[in-house]
Design goal:
single chain; Immunoglobulin-like; Glutaredoxin; 5-stranded mixed beta sheet
Length: about 375
């Protein structure tokens, strides 16, 4: 008899443990009947399918999973819209939304952390809306140097600053939450992180240190630490570009370009033949290339009057952001941009695969060296000019 009671007790304990780890998501999606929906586990760089369902009558659906610890998930609707969730073992969550605004106008109950993520998404969407409106206004301006354009650029910069401050404040207040991992990877677009500059890596490290105490075995914590190592290696590689010279084996001749400047006037590269020219590819959202251009300023000031010119091509598609970077960093050389990234003819002509990329052209129009900066560049200029 005691054996039977022991088996029953073990069974009940197993059921209780299962219930504690079980997570259920019940949802109501207005006008979503018949559409598909998936639940995917979110890692730093990828998602993994966990469950899928067809939305039933009245827009109802139910999904379940088992968890040992809190994890990030993506609930993906049939048309690609997503809702980000931070689920904990034992939670019973209720989601309400509609088919047209699935990812923007939803309410969630039963998960405090998922509600925190909803607020993060809401704030970033608000910032994106402001930036899009300002870009639209800038596109209608005929004079890029008008007082109105300066007001637009100032408002654009302030929106960026406000979003960054919001994110940092959230991190400070939620250091022990895995929602902080979601916060540090938020992006304005597919390319630009809110915390995308080299100095922002400190926030990644602080969050990783905190989560290694709270969630040492979490896959998110481990992925975050690995990503920090990758980012550090990339930044270190960039900082040593001066020693990574790629000399052209043979002169290739001038590859001519004609690209609009900030006023919309076409500037031909061949018009500067007879000078030593550096063609530099960069982007306003790429901190590595900004750092290189800042380094080039001293060489430009020293050799410009002797016949040295810089033809800086920005791989951007945002005119306000491009102009802000030029003005803020005081880049006084020739600044041009097709404003068509990622569809750049110039980058194809010069076979640019990463930023920054610089090509030194002699007075005859031959490419003689690549990626020369600082003392190495000036040694070349002493011989070319």
């Amino acid at each position: 008899m005691r054996i039977k009671y022991s088996i029953l007790l073990l069974f009940l304990l197993a059921v209780a443990a299962c219930n504690r780890s079980n997570v259920s998501i019940k949802g109501s999606i207005e006008e979503g009947e018949g559409q598909s929906i998936t639940l995917e586990r979110l890692d730093v760089n990828q998602t993994t399918l966990v469950d899928s369902s067809t939305i039933g009558k009245g827009g109802q659906f139910t999904m379940t999973t088992n968890l040992e610890e809190p994890e990030l998930f993506v609930l993906r609707y049939d048309d690609g819209q997503i809702v980000n969730l931070l689920l904990s073992p034992g939670e019973n969550i209720t989601l309400s939304t509609d088919a047209t605004s699935f990812s923007t106008e939803y309410s969630i109950k039963g998960s405090e952390e998922s509600e925190n993520i909803r607020l993060l998404v809401q704030q970033l969407n608000s910032t994106r809306s402001i930036l899009d409106s300002l870009q639209g206004l800038a596109a209608k301006m005929e004079d890029p140097e008008s007082p109105h354009m300066k007001v637009i650029r100032s408002a654009y910069a302030q929106a960026i600053v406000s979003q960054k401050r919001y994110t940092i404040r959230y991190l400070v207040e939620h250091m022990n939450s895995l929602s902080s991992v979601y916060a540090i990877y938020q992006k304005y677009n597919e390319e630009d992180l809110v915390l995308g500059f080299q100095e922002d890596l400190q926030y990644f490290k602080v969050i990783a240190d905190s989560l290694e105490v709270s969630y040492p075995n979490s896959s998110l914590t481990k992925s975050l630490r690995a990503d920090i190592s990758r980012r550090e290696a990339e930044f270190n590689r960039t900082s040593h570009l001066n020693s990574l010279l790629e000399m052209a084996e043979e002169p290739t001749g001038l590859l001519d370009l004609s690209i609009p400047d900030r006023e919309g006037r076409e500037v031909k590269l061949s018009d500067y033949k007879g000078k030593a020219i550096m063609v530099v590819f960069w982007a306003s959202g790429n901190q590595a290339s900004i750092s290189i251009l800042l380094q080039l300023k001293s060489s430009y000031q020293r050799y410009h009057d002797k016949g040295f010119e810089i033809y800086a091509i920005s791989l951007d598609n945002n005119k306000v952001q491009w102009m802000n970077a030029i003005d803020y960093n005081e880049f006084k050389w020739i600044n041009v941009s097709e404003l068509s990234y990622p569809n750049s003819r110039a980058s194809v002509v010069y076979n640019v695969s990463s930023l920054p990329a610089a090509f030194l052209i002699n007075r005859e129009g031959d490419i003689v060296a690549r990626d020369l900066y600082g003392r190495n560049l000036e040694t070349w200029l002493d011989n070319l000019l």
